[in-house]
Design a protein that fits this description.
Length: 362
């Protein structure tokens, strides 16, 4: 029996690792342990519950508003104790968070092999996204095996000197998560009071590199667009990050057609996106999901590491300027979009990852 440890700490990691966890659990010869760093608390619990997943080991490092240094130190200390007690044959971590980077560093210190899921995404701008671009480049230096979501991510890794035999292009496990959640039947927990026949658009924003002034400008751009389009209901499930939430409440609380929400159950959120006219976001993960649902996406970032939707013109990089945001939202609500091509049939990325892991551990 080989011991494989999955390390995760934030909402997107739990969602995109859940299908990998389910695929690995069904694979003979593997014993799977989930370590939660607890970088997130409520968000992580909500995402894990959606997939009936729970941590075997929980480091519980979250402290309100903690600094990146404090977070990194707590995760490194917690993982050190865990890795000294148990010696996994392989660790899997996902993406570009502080949890992922700290897991890779801890594995390196303890000489434990680590495989990186969602490897090779790059903007090559070290502060955009901050600190995630550094985190993922750092993880690439430390990982022994790289699961790339697409060919471009693989090329990035090869250019950085990773050997082709250590890279496998799998597709994004975000797609598996959407497929999996539509099969799990259970009543919704996120209260939904939106009338089914009214048009809705979705907003999510929480990136660290947008300081409070930039964020205020972006939110003002959204507010002005909402005022110009009273026929549209804009739904914004707010991230709990206190500095982001404070600014969102300050700028957006009094707009009648702008509904501020607590974080939604993953399945309800996917359902909301599926009926949305436009998805307005600074999240790369949501860019992928919305594109899989063939939605129009406005990316409120200067750069993206993902190609999803850009080629077909469904996804548009709008940036962070207030007036540009108002104009882009207005345009997207009043202009016609070509009927999207159908999603291309694909093999499950998570099953591909499970298969490759078995090969590597043999
Ligand atoms: C982190 C990741 C980011 C990812 C995002 C997903 C890093 C550096 N950033 O950013 O890449 O896109 O998660 O959401 O790893 N909080 C709560 N409850 C929660 C979660 C967060 O109260 O369940 C509050 C806490 O005060 C916490 C703060 O939000 O200190 C910020 O959380 P943190 O994980 O440091 O950064 P995010 O901005 O969430
Ligand atoms: N999500 C969710 N409920 C919400 C908002 C988002 O379940 O209210 C999901 C979304 O579908 C995506 C993930 O959370 O899978 C994105 O997480 P987040 O915005 O925290 O991080 P990011 O993608 O920016 O790294």
């Amino acid at each position: 029996m080989k011991n494989v440890f999955l390390v995760m700490g934030t909402r997107p990691e739990a969602i995109k690792m859940a299908p990998v966890y389910r695929a690995l659990k069904k694979t003979p010869g593997l014993s799977i342990t989930v370590i939660s760093t607890g970088q997130h608390r409520e968000l992580l619990a909500q995402a894990m519950q959606a997939f009936d997943m729970s941590p075997d080991i929980d480091l519980q490092v979250m402290r309100p508003g903690q600094s990146l240094s404090a977070l990194t130190c707590s995760i490194l200390e917690g993982l050190e104790k865990t890795f000294e007690r148990h010696r996994p044959d392989l660790v899997l971590a996902h993406g570009d968070t502080t949890t992922c980077f700290s897991a890779a560093l801890s594995c390196f210190y303890h000489r434990i092999p680590i495989a990186h899921v969602e490897a090779g995404l790059r903007t090559y701008r070290i502060d955009s996204p901050f600190p995630e671009e550094f985190n993922r480049q750092g993880v690439a230096k430390l990982a022994g095996f790289h699961f790339a979501p697409d060919a471009q991510a693989k090329d990035n890794l090869l250019r950085e000197g990773v050997s082709p035999i250590d890279v496998c292009v799998t597709g994004s496990t975000a797609v598996d998560a959407i497929d999996a959640i539509s099969e799990i039947r259970r009543p919704s927990k996120s209260h939904c009071d939106l009338s089914a026949d009214k048009p809705v658009s979705v907003i999510t924003l929480h990136r660290r590199e947008n300081g409070s002034e930039t964020l205020k400008g972006m939110l003002t751009g959204i507010k002005n667009a909402a005022r110009l389009h009273p026929e549209m209901t804009f739904v914004y499930p707010m991230h709990p990050n206190p500095s982001v939430r404070r600014t969102v409440l300050e700028v957006l609380s009094t707009i009648p057609n702008l509904v501020l929400r607590e974080p939604m159950e993953y399945r309800d959120f996917i359902g909301l996106m599926a009926r949305a006219t436009v998805v307005i976001t600074d999240s790369g993960g949501i860019q992928e999901e919305a594109d899989y649902l063939r939605k129009r996406v406005l990316l409120l970032r200067e750069h993206t590491e993902r190609v999803n939707g850009l080629g077909e013109g469904r996804t548009c990089i709008v940036g962070t300027n207030s007036e540009a945001i108002t104009a882009a939202i207005s345009r997207s609500l009043t202009s016609h979009l070509e009927a999207p091509s159908d999603a291309v049939p694909h093999e499950s990325p998570s099953l591909k990852i499970a298969r490759e892991i078995v090969k590597r551990l043999a």
